[in-house]
Design brief:
By secondary structure, the protein is mostly helical. Helices cover 57% and strands 0% of the residues. It has two helices and no strands. The longest helix has 30 residues. It is elongated. The relative contact order is 0.14.
């Protein structure tokens, strides 16, 4: 789950220079959880759109202009994830109205 290959070919789960990296940092774990939540939200939206027909979605701007700190990036990821989860909940409500 958290094992990833670096360009040097080492696995993050292996000891690197005598330091065991078996457990991810709290920030990496939170980032991974947010990514999983976004993936689930996208899957829900896709499934509801296939079952009920697609609805127009607003097009947003992405802010990729400046580098942000790790915590600021995590905060932005959390905000984006909350928006996606709310959208998925709305999609499930739409599916429920169609089915019931």
């Amino acid at each position: 789950m958290y094992n990833a290959t670096t360009t040097a070919g080492n696995y993050l789960g292996q000891a690197v220079q005598g330091i065991a990296l078996d457990e991810p940092s709290a920030i990496n774990a939170a980032s991974y959880a947010l990514e999983e939540a976004r993936s689930l939200a996208i899957r829900v939206e896709d499934m509801v759109n296939r079952l009920c027909g697609a609805t127009p979605q607003p097009v947003g701007q992405t802010d990729q202009g400046k580098a942000v700190s790790i915590l600021s990036g995590l905060r932005q990821d959390a905000g984006r994830t909350v928006d996606m989860i709310r959208n998925a909940q709305g999609q499930l409500n739409r599916l429920e109205r169609e089915v019931m």
